[in-house]
Structure formats: C-alpha cells, structure tokens
Design a protein that fits this description.
Layout: H1 17-33, H2 45-71, H3 97-112, H4 117-154
C-alpha cells in the first residue's frame, strides 16, 4: 500500500463492521430463498446459551477494545490516523480485539437464531476483514516502524 502521509490514517473508506452487516444481510436474503437451519427442530437451550454467550463475550471484548482506544486518545475510526500504538489491555492478547469481538457476536447471532447461512458466509467476511487488517497493518508499520514490528512478533493478529 503506497503511504505518502501517515497523518491520513490507513484509508479504510467504510466502518469495518459493515462487512459483517453485509454478510449477515446476504445470509438473511439467502434464507428467504432457501431456508438453511443449523437444527431443523429449532434452537434448543444449549444452542441458545452458546449463541448468547458468544454474543455477550464478543460485545464485551469489542467494548474493551474501544474503551482502551478511547483511554489512549487514539481514533477508533479506521479512516483517521492513530495517535499512538496501543499494545496493552486486550491488545496484549490480540492485535484486533474489536474485530475478534464482532466476529464472535456475528457467530453467536447466527447460532442463537438457528441460521446456517451466516456460518457459510463467515469465511468470506473473514477474507474481507483480513484484507482490511492488512491495510491497517501496512499503515501502522509506516506510522510506528520497529515498535509495531516488535508488537507483531509478540501478539497474534487474531488470537
């Protein structure tokens, strides 16, 4: 990615959670044409509990990432520049806790709703997210250099 001005940010033109919204919307449309359920009998108690747990854990993890960015006084919005490299809190375990959290919530919503199409489309959403993450990583490498490279060696992209 050619980067001439780190003050512009990574140049992501839309909020990355939109990828999950689009994937789920396509899944919902597919489900109206050809119903594809996880369990033909409907979501049982175990499935509902697992779905709710994934939703809750994902939203908490995502919120923890957002709060950590806000405390660091750096932008949560990926089309704005990063003011500092955040490596503590959830960023000590994952370089992308907000994206990890929304992935968990997406998965939980699909499971709780007993819908299989979102699960089929999840790999495509993850491919799109990986492209976004790579663009952000190139920006962060340009903006923070060796400090970011060291961070990448310590902390994995997802988990």
């Amino acid at each position: 990615m050619p980067m001439t001005d780190v003050s512009r940010g990574p140049g992501i033109p839309f909020p990355p959670p939109f990828v999950y919204v689009v994937a789920y919307a396509i899944a919902a449309l597919l489900n109206t044409r050809l119903e594809f359920l996880i369990d033909g009998q409907g979501a049982g108690t175990t499935q509902s509990v697992i779905g709710a747990a994934l939703i809750g854990a994902g939203l908490v993890w995502m919120a923890y990432g957002i709060v950590t960015f806000l405390r660091a006084r750096t932008s949560v919005v990926p089309d704005r520049p990063a003011r500092q490299l955040v490596t503590w809190g959830p960023y000590g375990l994952s370089r992308n806790p907000m994206y990890l959290g929304i992935t968990s919530a997406y998965l939980g919503i699909a499971i709780a709703n007993n819908h299989a199409w979102p699960l089929v489309l999840l790999p495509f959403a993850l491919i799109a997210m990986t492209a976004i993450i790579r663009r952000e990583e190139a920006y962060l490498h340009t903006a923070f250099g060796d400090a970011y490279d060291q961070y990448c060696r310590r902390v994995r992209r997802w988990v």
